[in-house]
Amino acid sequence: MPENEQNDKPVNNYIKYSALGFQMIAIIGVFTFVGYKIDESAHHDTKWVTAMLSLIGVFASLYVVIRSVKN
């Protein structure tokens, strides 16, 4: 393997995994925002929809990360 390809591999991994972190933040943020808007429009005292959708967002983002790391 040429020397420049060996040096590029850690940089590519760094970019790949940092992008996954931002993708996780985006997925969780979108789910939480949608839950917040639903709770706000329904005038709920307890923000159950926000809590549930943010938890679903965490699981969805973990699924995306695990699927990406397998490939």
Automatic annotation (TrEMBL):
Recorded superkingdom: Bacteria
Q: What residue intervals traverse the membrane?
A: 14-36, 48-66
Q: Which is a Pfam family this sequence falls into?
A: ATPase_gene1
Protein keywords: Membrane, Transmembrane, Transmembrane helix
Protein known as: Putative F0F1-ATPase subunit (Ca2+/Mg2+ transporter)
Supply the source organism for this entry: Mucilaginibacter auburnensis
User: What are the top taxonomic ranks of the organism?
Assistant: Bacteria, Pseudomonadati, Bacteroidota, Sphingobacteriia, Sphingobacteriales
